[in-house]
């Protein structure tokens, strides 16, 4: 089954895992909802349009380099009644790089996504509009399932129906999300399993 790989690299990234007004957090990894939003933007899909085909993609992520966190304190001007707005804090990941995998049986969809990422209709951003990528997002298409598509030694976080980690970032419809489950996989185990298969008569 083919997998499309995207390298997300930027001076700042912010992948919200909580819905807050005065405090905007970031998780330690890109979220599926954030990446699907990036893909939909690159494809030129309007806000509120149907993204069920994108939401059905199987999602995985591997950290390549994770930098320190930054907390930005911001004032938000005044409200319509003239009263000051509360202080807002936003969290970011600095100088981080992640490899994201999107798996599907629909090869044509993956090819369209890869082309759109390289020539996006709307500017892609890494979680928040204030977080542009460091440069063009690198794209690669491999004929391997999600678990085997990643390189490197860092753990892979792979979406699976029987996963033990829960994430509330599965797009359902406009700004509504459902639970998604994943497992963390050590690439070394994959390498050992492949070697054992080759040794069998």
TrEMBL record:
Keywords per UniProt: Antiviral defense
Tagged with keyword Kinase: no
GO molecular function, one term: RNA binding
InterPro entries: CRISPR-assoc_prot_Cas5, CRISPR-assoc_prot_Cas5_N, CRISPR-assoc_prot_CasD
Any one Gene Ontology BP term: maintenance of CRISPR repeat elements
Keyword Hydrolase assigned: no
Species this protein is from: Bifidobacterium longum subsp. longum
Name by which UniProt lists this protein: CRISPR-associated protein Cas5 family
Lineage of origin: Bacteria, Bacillati, Actinomycetota, Actinomycetes, Bifidobacteriales
Domain of life: Bacteria
Pfam families: Cas_Cas5d (PF09704)
